[in-house]
Write a structure and sequence with these properties.
Layout: H1 18-21, H2 34-41, H3 51-54, H4 62-71, H5 74-82, H6 88-94, H7 116-130, E1 144-148, H8 152-163, E2 167-171, H9 180-183, H10 192-204, E3 208-210, H11 221-226, E4 232-235, E5 241-242, E6 255-257, H12 258-266, E7 284-288, H13 292-303, E8 307-312, H14 323-331, E9 335-338, E10 340-348, E11 351-365, E12 371-384, E13 387-390, E14 394-395, H15 399-402, E15 428-430, H16 433-436, H17 441-463
Helix pairs in contact: 2-4, 2-7, 4-5, 4-7, 5-7, 6-7, 8-17, 12-13
């Protein structure tokens, strides 16, 4: 009989003490040891139906890679993961496994699911620490594809095309590769050395990445086809245009979009004493929003020394952020003022002084069963603040759409694309946040992989 571990709960993830980590930007979670990983892997029942794999957006062969951990062959486990995923060290850290693969894990029926994400991270970290082997560069097939954006969808698309022998050039608008992985997710959740290592693996496969290139301004999509000779273009430019609330006081000093606040911290290292990029070190910060980006902004402000409050117009049950991120935020001393919706930023001498919020309550369920927040007439709450950070979502930048004929967009600004990523212009494909608006890293990667397959079929059909 197999040596299963029938323990009902996961091996705990080692982590920094909350009162230590909320004052530094070092990674919060420390990763499994070899012994912890092998013990956790033995909790997998190796189900024949593979419900976990069916709910992975990139279809990682989860039972097989976990079985190799049980065998102690971590490199074999890594090879299995990278057959489907080009960013295992990233996904092992930031992918919402609890709502995807782990949610369908059989062990979760009568206890906690297998810690699939933690095991993926362990395997990727072990490989990065111990392997010096370079990836095999496929023989060139004579075709060229341009990829716009070096975020998760662009990297996944480029990786799959490079494996098929395509000459791939990635064009990145910022000065650093990684897209949202570099500018959006804090160091304490995703160390930038990890992102760099994953990107270097792509470069070793022959993918070229040009930074400081703004498609639609530096180069147009028409020029990529006509002057550079690319046969297809994939748009994975993300959704970096922040939304604001359009309430009084948003022009005051001390008001940030979460996008700007996190970019200054993550990409420009504004938290370091030697950084030349200014960032406010608030005393009292209020963040509006309930997603992962709101948690990242709140936890970053805490590390800058602020007393931090998150306001959100729904209740804890509706909070969209990952459970782990909410728990970490609470452990680090961040306060949650739920059922509050900002209606005014109160100023003094041009600076934020307080945030006035409309008190809310949850109404009757709608047809989908979700209870919408409704105002409690005449009831308001005010929170003292010198910094207000808006984290209510982002949308795609319209530059590419405005400079490219034939591309249709939705009302929210996302590119119109079919299930294979094909846009309304021939030869142009798109995926990730540029199509859907802000979503998860792993869903963006899944879209990049789907588009890579469609691009290959498109080019090969034209060639024949």
């Amino acid at each position: 009989m197999p040596d299963f571990n029938m323990r009902p709960d996961k091996n705990p993830m080692p982590a920094q003490d909350p009162n230590v980590r909320n004052k530094n930007f070092k990674e919060v979670t420390l990763g499994y040891t070899v012994e912890q990983a092998m013990d956790e892997a033995k909790r997998c029942l190796n189900c024949k139906t593979r419900p976990c794999q069916a709910h992975c957006p990139v279809q990682i062969n989860i039972p097989e890679f976990i079985a190799e951990i049980v065998n102690g062959d971590f490199e074999a486990a890594y090879k299995i993961i990278t057959e489907s995923s080009s960013l295992p060290a990233v996904c092992g850290r930031v992918c919402p496994q609890e709502s995807q693969c782990e949610m369908k894990c059989t062990r979760g029926v009568k206890g906690e699911s297998v810690a699939i994400g933690r095991l993926e991270r362990f395997v990727a970290d072990y490989h990065n620490q111990h392997s010096t082997e370079k990836p095999v560069v496929p023989a060139p097939n004579g075709h060229k594809v341009a990829v716009i954006g070096s975020g998760p969808s662009g990297l996944a698309c480029a990786s799959d095309l490079a494996k098929k022998g395509y000459k791939v050039n990635i064009y990145e608008a910022l000065h650093t590769e990684g897209g949202v992985l570099a500018y959006g997710i804090p160091e304490f959740r995703l160390p930038k050395a990890i992102v760099k290592k994953e990107v270097e693996g792509l470069k070793d496969m022959g993918v070229e990445i040009d930074t400081d290139v703004i498609i639609g301004k530096t180069i147009t999509i028409d020029e990529l086809f006509d002057e550079f000779g690319f046969e297809s273009v994939f748009i994975g430019s993300g959704a970096g245009l922040p939304r604001f609330m359009n309430i009084p006081g948003e022009s005051l000093n001390g008001v940030y979009s979460a996008n700007e606040f996190l970019t200054r911290i993550n990409l420009m290292k504004a938290y370091l004493d030697e950084s030349t990029t200014p960032i406010m070190h608030p005393k009292k910060a209020v963040i509006v929003g309930g997603g992962n980006v709101a948690m990242d902004a709140a936890r970053s402000a805490k590390r800058l020394g602020a007393d931090v409050t998150i306001v959100y117009r729904r209740s804890m049950e509706e909070l969209p952020a990952r459970k782990e991120e909410v728990e970490h935020a609470m452990e680090e001393g961040i306060k949650f003022e739920l059922l509050n919706n900002p209606v005014e930023i109160v100023g003094e001498d041009g600076w934020v002084k307080a945030v006035k919020c409309q008190a809310m309550e949850l109404g009757e369920p709608d047809a989908s069963g979700r209870r919408s927040p409704v105002e409690i007439e005449g009831k308001f709450n005010e929170f003292e603040a010198d910094c207000f950070i808006v984290s209510i979502g982002t949308s795609p930048n319209p530059l590419i759409k405005n400079t490219t004929a034939g591309l249709e967009v939705t009302k929210r600004g996302g590119l119109v694309a079919d299930e294979n990523g094909a846009t309304t212009r021939e030869g142009v494909f798109a995926g990730g946040d540029a199509v859907t608006g802000a979503a998860t890293v792993i869903k963006a990667m899944g879209a990049g992989k789907v588009a890579a397959k469609a691009i290959d079929e498109y080019i090969q059909n034209k060639a024949n």
